[in-house]
Amino acid sequence: MEDLEEDVPQEVKLVVTEEMRSYIYDITRWAKFLSIVGFVFSVILILVSFTIPAMIASNPVLAKQLGSLGQGSSTAITIIYLILGLFYFYPSLLLFRISNNGKQGVLFGNQESLNTAMQNVKSLFKFWGIITITVIVGYFLLLFLVGAGLAVA
């Protein structure tokens, strides 16, 4: 039999070409734009969440149209909009970090900044992956509940 030698893993060294640096730089510019738009949208949602109760209280026709949400407390609407605003803030923050760290890594050849940018890319995709799985499970649960409700009725 042959002597079995232990395979010692060798360190993998990747080369970042000028073309790749150009792509990363373009990504950072788009990430900066999308993060700023996300921050603005998040702030608008949060501000709207706090103005909705005043709008409903000052307009009885609107309160009547909203039914139980408008006649009672509009706290549920406020909480939903506040959660949506905070929900939109996190991916915008990750995009902002990707933009700053990626740009610094590419322009100055800073490996640590590029590593941090890639870590934020991973976090961004993980966040959207978890949200996607949650939405898919929610749809199946909703479909199941509607089907069960129809079977009972």
From TrEMBL:
Parts of the chain that traverse the membrane: 30-56, 76-96, 127-152
Lineage: Bacteria, Pseudomonadati, Bacteroidota, Sphingobacteriia, Sphingobacteriales
Name of this chain's protein: Uncharacterized protein
Species assigned in the record: Pedobacter psychrotolerans
Domain of life the protein comes from: Bacteria
Keyword Transmembrane in record: yes
Keyword line: Membrane, Transmembrane, Transmembrane helix
Alphabetical list of InterPro entries matching this protein: DUF5362
